[in-house]
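Quick illustration, no need to memorize.
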Amino acid sequence: MRHHKAMRLASTNLISMNVSPRKATASDDRWAAVQTRDRRADGSFVYGVHSTKIYCRPSCPARRPRQSGVSFFPDARRALDAGYRACRRCQPDVHRSSDKDQAIAAVCEAIDRGDAEPFALTALANRLGFSSGYLTRAFKTVVGMTPKQYASMRRIERFKERMQSGGSVTSALYDSGFGSASRLYENGAAYLGMSPAAYRRGGDGATVFFTIVRTAIGHMLVARTKAGVCSVKLGASDAALQQDLKSEFRAAAIRRDDGRPAEIVRAILAHLQSSAPLPDLPKDVVATAFQRKVWKALAAIPYGGTRTYGEIARSIGLPSAGRAVAQACASNRLAIIVPCHRAVPRSGGAGGYRWGSQRKKLLLKLERQRTKP
């Protein structure tokens, strides 16, 4: 018995040496977090209690152990490897996704509203009860970019809206939240595909080929560049669609060419008329990683079906981001190809649509009819 006990102790010590736990010291910020049960430190580390061989979250409500009887581990797996078991009260082995998701959604909403200009992640993280480092990592995992990058993207989108309304570059950049022109020119090309001045000139130097066809849901404009499809619009007339195309790229070489977009048109019409699956068409659109994630989820909705914004948010692992999902749907410029018409509000009805709510209702009705046996 003594031999086996000694072997178990030796094995435990060997495992502990491999994972290199660190004992608590008075100057260690982690010990301070344990003493104050700081919820913001949850997810950054766990601590193991030597006497009970139990590991806990920093915020565990159980009676605090002695400092000399505690070791820190970077994560639950390391604590388990060292022979500790999870606390039943704070459940450090359970991932609290709801808290994290709500925090990420709150960050998105704060940035969308323009409440965080200049973006102060630390203050926002403190208000939500997380460390800024943990919140940044979680945000990037789910959204596909850091909060700072997301804030830059949203400023660029506001800048584009002001440019399209005919404002000057100077007034648009300050109205959009940029502190200086240098900040705009540093980040603009990544999201606009050109310099801000070139975008202000309406896409000077770009060439866009388009065609317009009639469908059961109205006139449809399909435009492409050499790289791929850049726009699919729905409207009531050829003239209105052409004007809409020119409004964003006023100085681009826009040419009607029924031949170049023909392959894209045939694929879309086949999809509309017979529910034929759309091929993976080459696209020339600027979108964030989060927008592309939402668009991919939209493409997974079956023909004739719908999903609420909340259901789409849950499908991409961000249950509380329904509002951000709706924003991603609204930014879609490829009608039908990216089926944002299948995203609907939880309250009922068809909801909004860039190309008109009545057209959205008709499109959904036609899809449902074509899927009936």
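The CA atoms of residues 217 and 359 lie 6 Å apart.
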